[in-house]
Design goal:
Subcellular location: Cell membrane; Membrane
Oligomer: single chain
Number of helices: 26
Main location: membrane
Protein name: Probable potassium transport system protein Kup
Radius of gyration: 29 Å
Keywords: Cell membrane, Ion transport, Membrane, Potassium, Potassium transport, Symport, Transmembrane, Transmembrane helix, Transport
Function: Transport of potassium into the cell. Likely operates as a K(+):H(+) symporter.
Number of strands: 10
Strand content: 5-15%
């Protein structure tokens, strides 16, 4: 089905407000500031043109990109109710090999942009306290104490991630409902002083402003306007947590409240044009709030910023988890602190994100400097999503719609990308540099594996069928001491039963390993998020098993648990001979012991392969280096407390003879 059915409920809509809209919902804190900074100083009459044109651009940007592209079109491309760029790639990857490029680039850019969102939102909120008095406490107008408070908030936020967010998540919805209601109410109050601002809803003002001599920046003003829709990708990514119908039901309310806030800020700016300059003294968002509401505004804005940051952090966990499942990133330790599948915690990602975010805060220091660097990477992600969505539409025979879609949104997002490139020298190089670093890791991990497989497919692979007689004979040879009841090799067995030569070499040559049953287990990533199934081929024997396990990209790799269940199923079906151990402390135990053998391919063997092209040598070497520093196979497959033997083997078994060697 192109459109799945999910329930629309009041509770679901409330939770959706807290989970989905944190990023896009806090954009009124800084978007107008960014526009004023970029637009520069104007005469009072020109300020009206600038505000009407800018807000018109904001309205139609939200309409076209957020509403039409993501809510009306992208959410139809759901992978068993899951969304996001990697879930979308899993749907279309069989359509064309080149689609891996937009998936890698878009995913890397999305992860990089996530480091700036917590920094800019929390800093923008806390800066509202500058020069304010709270009871006996007066906050100075300096930036130093702001940085300390922001650092404390962010460190505390990253510290609590390991405990899980299930309990605090329930409070996010009501708090964000208060936030949206507040910004809408305050915006409406300010808008009533100048109802003419409603003219900004006409696209005429947007087009007129882009070509107006009062717009000194030309199309580059779009770089600041784009900040209003930076959270649109989160709507699609978080679809699996809340359901698309709850997003459909809440977006009209959120859209209306956001526009009331922008219209209200525009009205305030027009009526206070003389107070604005290149160094404007007030953030229009806080300035339009009545004095006696100011502290509440700062408090609820800080809460909303924290919620937005939380959403980006958990979103990063989900994105990395999906990338690992699709073999686009190295293996990392993943924990599930809550009772929900969506409750993830990845320690490595958490602290890397914390370090980079704090680095961004102290490097840029002020929210206005962060705004100058914000949005460049996310425009790249949106363009990559457009390419993948075009492939999705073509896959479903909507060729005309696909062409119109990629042409229209490609042009629109291309303009935003060009406009955002103006931010490169103002700090955009930071997020672009982080994007390139993440992309480099993805390229080495994915293409290193591809090139390694291409070179070893013939010379380093053998047919498992050719060795069945030896394996059966070894299993019955009582002169060889028993090694294990169930001997398990985790690797890859192809549909025509090809297996790495190193596996057979380990069993028969290094030290013959006698076992009652030999298990050759392949763990395949499934396109569906929560797939959990397996197939078994006995190869005409009772002691050699080819097991193919299919796990969705959101399923944990608990290989020991899965394999024991498979053995119990086969024992019950009479496929396996009885394994009841003679001695056991567990009453009724029917399964014998397991021993897992992990083959550790060594980097130094790569240098002996003189026939490898230089690029392949680089990619394979990078992949093997990442394998050495990332999570070990034992920990990845949940085998920390299992009997695991690690054997070092060369990447290529045997080397070509050196023809220069001569006997004297």
């Amino acid at each position: 089905m192109w459109l799945t059915t999910q329930k629309l409920t009041g509770v679901g809509m409330l939770i959706t407000l807290g989970i989905v809209y944190g990023d896009i919902g806090t954009s009124p804190l800084y978007v107008m500031n960014a526009i004023i900074d970029q637009a520069g100083r104007h005469e009072t009459a020109a300020v009206t043109t600038v505000m009407l044109g800018s807000i018109s651009l904001i309205f139609w940007t939200l309409m076209l990109i957020t509403t039409v592209k993501y809510i009306l079109l992208a959410m139809r491309a759901d992978n068993r109710h899951e969304g996001g760029i990697f879930a979308l790639y899993a749907l279309v990857r069989n359509a064309a090999k080149w689609l891996i490029f937009p998936a890698l680039v878009g995913g890397a850019a999305l992860l990089a942009d996530g480091t700036l969102t917590p920094a800019v939102t929390v800093t923008s909120a806390v800066e509202g306290l500058k020069s304010q008095t709270l009871g006996p406490v007066h906050f100075s107008g300096t930036q130093g104490w702001v940085l300390l408070v922001v650092t404390g908030i962010l460190v505390g936020l990253f510290l609590v991630q390991r405990l899980g967010t299930q309990l605090i998540g329930w409070s996010f919805g009501p708090l964000m409902l208060i936030w949206f209601s507040f910004i809408g109410l305050v915006g409406l109050r300010s808008l009533l002083t100048d109802p003419g601002m409603l003219n900004a809803l006409s696209p005429v003002y947007a087009l007129r402003f882009l070509m107006s001599p009062d717009n000194h920046q030309g199309i580059f003003i779009l770089g600041s306007v784009f900040l209003a829709t930076t959270g649109a990708e989160a709507l699609y990514s978080d679809m699996g947590q809340v359901g698309k119908w709850n997003i459909y039901g809440t977006w009209p309310f959120v859209y209306a409240m956001l526009m009331l806030s922008y219209l209200g800020q525009g009205a305030w700016v027009i009526h206070h044009a003389t107070q604005l300059g290149v160094q404007h003294p007030d953030n229009p968002f806080y300035a339009m709030v009545p004095e006696n509401w100011r502290m509440f505004a700062i408090g609820i804005a800080t809460v909303a910023a924290i919620i937005a940051s939380q959403a980006l952090i958990t979103g990063s966990y989900t994105l990395v988890h999906e990338a690992i499942g699709l073999k686009l990133l190295p293996r990392l330790r993943i924990k599930f602190p809550g009772s929900e599948k969506s409750q993830l915690y990845i320690s490595t990602v958490n602290w890397l994100l914390c370090g980079v975010t704090l680095g961004v805060v102290w490097f840029f220091r002020t929210s206005s400097h962060m705004e100058a660097a914000y949005g460049l990477a996310i425009t790249i992600t949106m363009l990559m999503t457009t390419l993948l969505l075009q492939a999705f539409l073509r896959q479903r025979n909507h060729r005309l719609l696909a062409t119109a879609f990629v042409g229209g949104f490609g042009l629109l997002e291309g303009l935003f990308l060009i406009a955002s490139l103006a931010k490169f020298m103002h700090g955009g190089y930071v997020t672009l540099g982080i994007t390139l670093l993440i992309l480099t890791i993805m390229v080495f991990w994915y293409y290193g594996n591809q090139r390694r497989s291409a070179h070893v497919v013939d010379a380093e692979h053998v047919s498992l069928l050719d060795f069945l007689p030896q394996l059966q004979a070894l299993s019955r040879d009582h002169e060889v001491p028993p090694f294990a009841t169930n001997l398990v090799y985790v690797g890859h067995v192809t549909p025509d039963y090809a297996i790495k030569r190193a596996v057979v070499y380990s069993i028969l040559d290094q030290q013959p390993k006698r076992a009652a049953v030999y298990w050759f287990v392949t763990v395949n990533e499934a396109d569906t998020p929560y797939e959990c199934s397996y197939t078994v081929e006995t190869l005409g024997t009772r002691n050699v098993m080819d097991v193919q396990i299919y796990l969705g990209f959101k399923k944990p790799q608990r290989l020991n648990v899965y394999l024991r269940q498979i053995v119990n199923d086969l024992l019950a079906a009479g496929v396996l001979p009885d394994q009841t151990p003679r001695y056991s402390s567990v009453p009724g135990r029917q399964v014998g012991n397991f021993k897992f053998v992990m083959l550790n391919q060594q980097l130094q063997d790569l240098g002996a392969q003189d026939d490898l092209p230089a690029l392949d040598r680089l990619l394979i070497g990078g992949r093997l280096l990442l394998q050495r520093i990332c999570l070990s196979p034992q920990r990845w497959y949940g085998l920390e407390f299992s009997d695991v033997v690690e054997e070092r083997v060369p990447l290529f078994i045997g080397h070509a003879p050196d023809r220069t060697l001569r006997r004297k």
